[in-house]
Amino acid sequence: MPLLSKQPIDPRLYRNAMSRFGGHVQLVTTAIGKERRGVTITAACSVSDDPATVLVCLNNSNPKNDIFFRSGIFALNTLGAHHQALADAFSGRTQLSNDERFATGRFDKLVTGAPILHDALASFDCRVSEIKEMSTHHIIFGEVVAVRYNEAKPALLYMNRDYHTL
């Protein structure tokens, strides 16, 4: 299936309009051996509950994201209001090294070996079932093989280029 052709809409105009679109802040992580990667995102959602499937969207212009396309696994960690500093660390705002980013939280593993944030509101441990390239992003579909959730706490949202809680 061919990719969409370029739209006549200015990308900056589109991004400004999309900044009004609130999203739950997530941390998507993966690993191959000792190599780990984590990225703060808002483009993630449930696809199905039978079989349990989620999707995440990752910018394909960052070569460091290549590990997500090679690993075959990922974890989707739902962040709470108490994770704002961690969200900043994994978004690149703080310019921390990869090891320093992972040091801002406590991580363990469930089934696949993908890093699971210990105190995430919810974590979905996934095996990649399909990857689709769509313009500037890759859409990664994951079969959920394990789930963990913690006490319900206020959620961390991102809207109007800033964090909010709900």
Topology:
Layout: H1 11-18, E1 23-24, E2 26-32, E3 35-41, E4 44-49, E5 52-59, H2 66-71, E6 73-78, H3 84-91, H4 98-102, E7 107-108, E8 116-117, E9 122-134, E10 137-149, E11 156-159, E12 162-165
Antiparallel strand pairs: 1-11, 2-3, 2-6, 4-5, 5-10, 6-9, 7-8, 9-10, 11-12
Number of strands: 12
Outline, from the CA principal axes? globular
Multimeric state: single chain
Q: Helix count, per DSSP?
A: 4
> CATH homologous superfamily - what is it?
Electron Transport, Fmn-binding Protein, Chain A
Mind telling me the CATH class? Mainly Beta
As laid out across the biggest beta sheet, the strand order is 3-2-6-9-10-5-4
Report the sheet with the most strands, covering strand number, pairing sense and barrel closure.
7 strands, antiparallel
Query: What percent of residues adopt helix (DSSP H or I)?
Result: 10-25%
Category by helix and strand content: alpha+beta
Please provide the ordered H/E string of secondary-structure elements. Answer: HEEEEEHEHHEEEEEE
User: What is the total domain count?
Assistant: 1
Q: Calculate the terminal CA-CA distance, rounded to whole Å.
A: 39 Å
- CATH architecture call: Roll
How would you characterize this protein structure?
- The strands form three sheets. The chain has a seven-stranded antiparallel sheet with strand order 3-2-6-9-10-5-4. Strands 1-11-12 form a three-stranded antiparallel sheet, with no helix packed on it.
- By secondary structure, the chain is of the alpha+beta class.
- It has helices spanning 11-18, 66-71, 84-91, 98-102; strands spanning 23-24, 26-32, 35-41, 44-49, 52-59, 73-78, 107-108, 116-117, 122-134, 137-149, 156-159, 162-165.
- It is globular.
- The chain has a single domain, classed as Electron Transport, Fmn-binding Protein, Chain A (Pnp Oxidase, Chain A, Roll), CATH 2.30.110.10.
- The longest helix has 8 residues, at 11-18.
- It is built from four helices and twelve strands.
- Helices cover 16% and strands 45% of the residues.
- The termini are far apart.
- The mean pLDDT is 94.
